[in-house]
Amino acid sequence: MNEALRRGQAPMIRPSKVEVFREGVFLVSAPALKALDKRVLYPPASWPEELDDRTKVTGRLRLTFADTFPGGGFGVLELRVLVKKAIPVCALHGPVFLLGHHATDPPQPGWHPALLPLGPLPTTPLITQIHLDTAVSRALISRNSGVPGTSPGGI
User: Using an 8 Å Cβ cutoff, are 94 and 114 in contact?
Assistant: First the structure.
């Protein structure tokens, strides 16, 4: 049975602030936040899907998430990444795990949903960094215990 969710009750948290690394410092970037602050489609909620990959960000980012998940757990970033020839690798967290029908080996070029395991979720606000040399058009965080490398008993 699907759980009906109202707006604001999504199983993932959108970033509240995005900073871009420029000239040796992190600078708050409203365009970067706008590019990454998109929901994912959760069918029972009947929300329109916000897939606009024309707004994207590349490089070293610092993401702040103001909400928290009760009970803690392991964190995973849910991203939408542009794959060129190989699976993107975050310079800070390692390779992303591609999802979807086209996550083949080698992956098909184009936009893919992807996961990036972060490890245990600390207290609010959650601030994490990513450094990808490919475009990212969405970044959400969720709690997950079944992603490779994030917890005992993971896939």
Answer: no
